[in-house]
Amino acid sequence: MPTITPQFLDRPVFRLLSEVAADKGVRAFVIGGFVRDCFLGRPCNDIDVVVEGSGIDFARAVGERTHQHVSYFKNFGTAMLHYHGDELEFVGARKESYRRESRKPIVEDGTLEDDQQRRDFTINAMAFSLQKEDFGALVDPFGGIRDLDAGIIRTPLDPDTTYSDDPLRMLRAVRFAAKLSTPDHLFTIVPESMASMRRMADRLKILSCERIAEELNKMLLTDCPAMAFRLMDEAGLLAYVLPELLALKGVETVDGRGHKDNFEHSLAVLDNVVAAQAVLSGREPLWLRWAAVLHDIGKPASKRYDASQGWTFHGHEVVGARMVPKIFNRLRLPLDEMKYVQKLVRLHLRPIALVDEEVTDSAVRRLLFDAGDDIDDLMLLCNADITSKNEAKVARIRANFELVKRKLVEVEEKDAIRNFKNPIDGIYVMEVYGIPPCAEIGQLKEMVKEAILDGEIGNNFEEADAYMRKRAPELGLHEV
């Protein structure tokens, strides 16, 4: 890989930054992710600029030169502006020290070398010079360019110091390994760093749930999220981050009969979801990926051994659905998305059950009613859940699965159940029978709904009204 890199700084903004640095008599550098991504050939519009001096003063001068609004974050000593599609963040070079009980650093002014030493990984500590005399020169005191070429994640300093100072860096190491890996160029975390993580794993306790969740979300949005969970397991981090997933790991055997490793199965389902979403568009991938990770978390609590049947996990979808809110609340993940993930976990066996049984219109109507607008995501998850190594079994299930998908389309076109709204509302019932609000109204509406889902009547007001009038006397209701 090249180390003299003016071609990576051919955007006009970099010459402008160089001029501002010369005018103010300070040294400035592009550092971090932009530099790394240049060598990897990845597009990047987030540009970090470190200044040996005041980053805020430097940003103010750049804002005056470009006529762009500058946002200042004085508590952090940083500033930011947007310019021609790029987001530039400015900070003064600094050195940091930490107290053991906190990840909030004590910050002092420093040099570029000090700033590079405080960076998390060698591949994120590389900098491009913006000085006119060596514009574009790579400043790489820790061999980040070699590590990038070798595909390794390594800390600039002793990993115990790096991870103890800021334990979030352990999760970031995992995320970068997953984010930067491609089929042709896998990234690994160096052994001494993995060993350090195992020693420092309990330091994750000082992190806020929000920061952990942010890293998990970023891992899930990479092209290799399953890799991230395996690395967290190997490094001893998963017990502090998502113990419910770790509980799936391992195979128990009785009388020579074992079950599959549900940890590896869950990651295989996640891989399948990622692969399927790669050919889709217009879909938010994050929460479906969460559903893939969590779809079997109820299995440890529901696992039973039966001498005639072997291992069973009856009701694990119900148990798992009850666990989802606790996980989302602990990680401070959004409530609306929790309901979506919980629904998919609760329903993830339903399409498979239809595959194994006769695909009746009634069963399809109920699935459409329960899944609503999330039916397509549910079907994608259920298809991803087919991970058997028995090719004949997989072929049979997938063929039946296609039958279910066709049946869903047919029933939806005919009965419009997906966004079901009862043709009979409470006000109408009160008017017909001259009654105040009471339990019988809900019971009568439930009768109508069940009749529609069972196919006894069509999903329209006329048939629903006639059915209501037929069943109302059973509840002691008479027309006025």
Overview of this protein structure:
The chain is an alpha+beta fold and 480 residues long. It is 52% helix and 11% strand. It has a seven-stranded mixed β-sheet. The protein has a two-stranded antiparallel sheet with strand order 6-7. The model has no long low-confidence stretch (mean pLDDT 89).
Lay out the secondary structure.
Layout: H1 12-24, E1 28-31, H2 33-40, E2 46-51, H3 55-66, E3 70-73, E4 78-83, E5 86-92, E6 94-97, E7 106-109, H4 112-117, E8 127-129, E9 138-139, H5 144-150, E10 152-153, H6 159-165, H7 168-180, E11 188-189, H8 191-200, H9 209-220, H10 225-234, H11 238-241, H12 243-246, E12 253-254, E13 257-258, H13 262-277, H14 285-294, H15 299-302, E14 304-306, E15 310-312, H16 316-330, H17 335-347, H18 350-356, H19 361-371, H20 375-384, H21 391-415, H22 426-433, H23 439-454, H24 461-471
Parallel strand pairs: 2-5, 10-11
Antiparallel strand pairs: 1-2, 1-8, 3-4, 4-5, 6-7, 8-9, 12-13, 14-15
Helix pairs in contact: 1-3, 6-8, 7-9, 7-10, 10-13, 13-14, 13-20, 14-17, 16-17, 18-21, 19-21, 23-24
